Description:
Low-confidence stretches: 1-20
Radius of gyration: 28 Å
Distance between the termini: 84 Å
Bound molecules: zinc ion
Amino acid sequence: MRVFFAILPCIALGSAFAAPALEPPKLRLGDAVEPSSYAVQLTLVPGSESFQGVVDIHIDVRTPSQIIWLNAAQLEISAAAFRPETSAVEPAGVVAGGNDFAGFAFDRPIAGKGVLHIAYKGKISRNSSSGIFQLKESGQWYIYSQFEPTDARRAFPCFDEPGFKVPWEMTLRVPRDDLAVANTPMLSESNEAGGMKTVKFKVSPPLPSYLVAFAVGHFDVVDAGKVGKTPLRVIVPRGKAKEASYAATAIPQLLKLLENYFGIPYPYEKLDSVVMPISNFAMENAGLITYEENMLLADPKRDTINRQQDLATFCAHEMAHQWFGDLVTTAWWNDIWLNEAFATWMETKIAGEWKPEWHLDVTAVNARIGAMHQDSLTSARKIRQPILSNDDIANAFDDITYEKGAAVIRMFESWIGEDQFREGVRLYLKQHAGGNATASDFEAAISTVAGRNIAPELDSFLDQAGLPEVTVTLDCGSDPKLELSQKRALPIGSPGSEGELWKIPVCVAYESDGAAHRECQVLSNAHSEMILAAKTCPARLVANAGETGYYLVNYKGDLLNQLLSDQGRHLGIAERVGVLGDVDALVSTGDYSPGAALRLVPDFAADPNWQVVEAAADLAGLLKADDVPDELHSKAARFVVRIFGQRAADLGWTAQPGESDDTRLLRQKLVPFVASVGGQKELIDQAERLARNWLKTRGGISPDMVRPVLEVAAEFGNRDLFDLLRSAAIQENDHRIRENLLSALGSFRDSALARAALELLVSNNFDAREAFYPLLFGPLAYPETRDVPFAFVRENLDKLLAHLPREVGGDYAANLPMVGGSFCDASHRSEVDSFFRQRVRDYAGGPRNLENVLEEIDLCTAERKKLGPELVAFLQQY
Ligand SMILES: [Zn+2]
């Protein structure tokens, strides 16, 4: 039975109290008041614009206070009171606290334990996937929640920080015909008047607010069996059950592999995987993971290898979080890397263990190369960046946290040894199960099993931004040894300083005296020596063994030539890709000649492995339009066709029966590359014919080639093709097909058509969560259209902002400065700067994104000046 209180208006009552603290907190709530559990009751009706809530929070007021601040956003609070354990009820007035807080003010100071009772109303968003929101599928609304990082406060007044980890008891009042799911199994269900029912759920284990979740709607339920005692279900919008068959097979197998790794059974009573029709994320809510529909579901007839790989890696990621993040939770957002880097590292590890033929270790190398590029900017975050504002929380969900963090974990695993590292992970989980932990706790557990303190080495990567470059010289004197030196890798034109030092576990691999050697040494100083165990000097040596290290290698003397001789066939696939990635990066830092790098392309373009061919194509991308004068573009295209053309022509656009997955993946990369960058007329004409036929018949192209065919056809297409694509996209009900059509609409090289595609962003034809990225950033790929998005944003900012959602990790608006991302001159830089400088302050995470973009423009400008002449000289041969 709950005591009901007088209704109080939702206004600031500041003048009524001699208040010591009517100012809301700046960022954090502090520890004067602590919650010990929540009971939440929400009335949720799909299709309705709002919901009603009642929350009872058991709190301990440790410092007597006349006002209690909680997190709350866009909630209309109608009643509040504190019911102490030992004295009479104290009604509370509500004090407005800006965007993130609500204050509960009392006539006299309150203290001790009791229940804070709050009745309120909130919004169910339709265009943002944050807080409580709803999405439509086949005419039906479905309600979901998404609280990470700071949106639980849109669903209930709460202590919305990860360190407050307590049990939750959820009760959902929903329409009688709907299914309601939450973190825990249902306890009871009872019908009410008015077509509603009350669903009570079991009390949860301790959870931070950001992991609480629920969903309500006309769902169908797919049984995915059990792992141990854990029942697994896939919860899908009505009618989609048959599209969940691959998910229902993959999820139990991946969960089993995770249990084996952690040595701890899955920590919750059940695991539901819930499908959201639109949204660009998956979320690891304890026992109730949410996934975007395109990732989790596929019509078996239209499924692709790419989708299956995405599903496996995303599921492995979110399920790894059930231990790393949910069972043990980061104490504060500065350590969110512990969650995200770990889960990102696990996704390729576990999905790769499940399907070794996918070579996901190479995928991890490519992700590392991408993070290294971002990390070379002086505006890059640290993995463990201090959190001083909500901007910092929004920025914390970036590639540095995920991909650099994962690469650094991979480096330490490889250095310490896989088995020992796993033991350290298990120890860490055991020590902190059910609670919170920090980076130091993790380091302590790994150090215990490693038998050495690894904190100094790991901290040098966590608390310092930037990419180390290790220069390696082989000295074949009496004792073979390596001369090692390190500096910060900085792109041409960077204003940064090279003087920073890391404690880098450098691991090298080589063959000598008929035996394979792998040796590691920590490089702490600017210069050092590494005496090799071998007696005979090796002919070849990889200075980043297995490509698991997070450092760029600058090979001196003949080392690189030796490595790349014989088309690098003596190297593993990951090493071939990693070494080519190093060459590419060294061209950017001015340490390797672009002409020499381009001369490597033919050897690796012929590689049997598609990932190596992709790396060779990336290297050919050095001939990008910015660095090459217009009159030489045709020569650059000829270079691409001469080297890759025959192989692309042999593959063609059309899949052949009985082909391997590797051949299909090679086709996906190579054929559109030769058509687009090489301008290969025959392939372009074929793409257009296939695209037009597909638009009529929805046939003639294998599912994995639909997107590249449509994109290439659009790139060289005319107004007529644009109109066909646009009306097809507007009429399409299938999310994945619509995604392909939108991607094609963002691929037109004709600037008028690129502009016409952007107009769709401010029409009401598409959800911005689907249309924003392909339409706004697609045109940045070509010199002809790169001005179009910025011009469009300048002219339509207010209209655009009205369409843009807020989603996990912050506002879409924070990404708007990236429309300047492919400019390469000072005057555009200054226009981007002056347009966005003040505005980005209103978009959570925007200021740092603007800094990144401005730095990218500066670097491109400097690189063009430095590399241009040599690229021109190279192209004269073609
Ligand atoms: Zn994650």
